[in-house]
Amino acid sequence: MDMLSFLPDHLLVIILSFLAFQEAGRTSVLSRRWQNIWRQTRNIEFNERFFSYISADDEARRIAFVNFVQNWTDNYQPSVLDRVCITFSRPGNFLVLVEDCIRFAVTRGVKVLGLDFSDPLWNDELLELGNYPEPAYVLPQFVYQHGVLESLTLSSCNINLPEIINFHLLKHLALGWIELPLPTLSVLLNKFPLLESLSVKNCWNTDGLQVGGQNLRLRSLVVEKFIMSENPWIEIEAPHLRYLKYSGTMAVFDIEAGELEEAYLDFGLEYEGNEGMGDLLYQLLHQLPVRTLTVCTYMLQVLPLELISNGVTPVFGVAKLTLRTAMLSCEQKGVKYLLRSCPVLQALTIQIVPQRLVDLDEGQPDDVRHVWTLNALEYHCINQTLRVVQVKGYTGTRHEIGFLKYLFCRGRVLEKLHISIGEELLNQRSIAENRQLVIQTFQGLRRASNNLRINTYGR
């Protein structure tokens, strides 16, 4: 800290403003001089969850939080703020305090504003049952006149679309825990000509989702746990989109995104699968010209059911593939399907996740013990292009072991095999013992690549 001590206070404030609010607060114990410098930070986060240590009593925590916020806003001296985030569930009895906080931020020219009034007890089950919570707050009128905003995050906070006419500088928008009628996003996107990233989480409607607009600059789109109760369809027209993450129910997709580089797909809210679902997944993958792809266990179980390709191997240009899987027998056809369909694959990640069985029309496949035998089919990517494989959360199941042996014996250009031991195994034995078990997996086998290096590690 000696070098920093030579700096004037106003430069220290600038440095502290790059730290998270709690991290800036910890600097107050460094010396007498530092006790109050952090109180001038331009990056403020009023979060009631920071006060969980105060008491087990919810009311006591809220009172401590309210007193902290009031004291802070009453004594804050700087006239400029960069970022203010307010996290306060069930604010109904403190609406005046919340409005004063927002006014405190706006009058100081804040550019990044986050308002989260969602209840931490809200979960996926609430959405799946259709018990959609009412928004806990309504965005105050004066915020709509704050034209310097560059980033806006709203959770359980209603907005008035006709009033949004001044956010011409907005680059980042995130919405959560609100109903989004069909035209809402298109209307918003047409009002934000500079918008680069859009995030929609835990939202719902009865129609579908449409993302598009004139001269759209959107580069990142995250749609997470979006519920469409009647007509599940998603239309995306974003010529400059680079990253797409979708998590929710199955839908009919119509995507035009010629510059798309990476996609993350998760249909964890679906519990049933059939040939029609497989066809939809097939069509979706053919609309994504991505080099980096992440798929879920639902896709691994349902995608092989598709009939559109008539048995002809589909070809995708994926170079980096992540499989979120428990490596169950019912997922192995999906693993093989994607290996066969990604002939230029260079990097493969196996992310071990909790087991989840999809209710398939044709029933679950037989529990085949030896899927990845040395007599299994050869795949072009395994023989010619795959250089790096990473297993995260390794649990040592028979299909994990079988697949690793298959890669060891067939991966002719494989250079790196990283195995991260899962918590379950680490709780049973030491990292050294787990490493020895992994080594024993390959004993007596002939490696296909002389350049292969195996690395095993824990946390």
From TrEMBL:
Domain F-box span(s) in chain numbering: 1-49
Residues making up the signal peptide according to the UniProt record: 1-24
InterPro entries named in the record: F-box-like_dom_sf (IPR036047), F-box_AtFBL13-like (IPR053781), F-box_dom (IPR001810), FBD (IPR006566), FBL13/AtMIF1-like (IPR050232), LRR_At1g61320_AtMIF1 (IPR055357), LRR_dom_sf (IPR032675)
Record PROSITE patterns: FBOX
Record key words, sorted: Signal
Protein's UniProt keywords contain Protein biosynthesis: no
Superkingdom of origin: Eukaryota
Keyword hit for Signal: yes
Protein's name according to its UniProt entry: Putative F-box domain, FBD domain, leucine-rich repeat domain, L domain-containing protein
The organism of origin for this protein: Rosa chinensis (China rose)
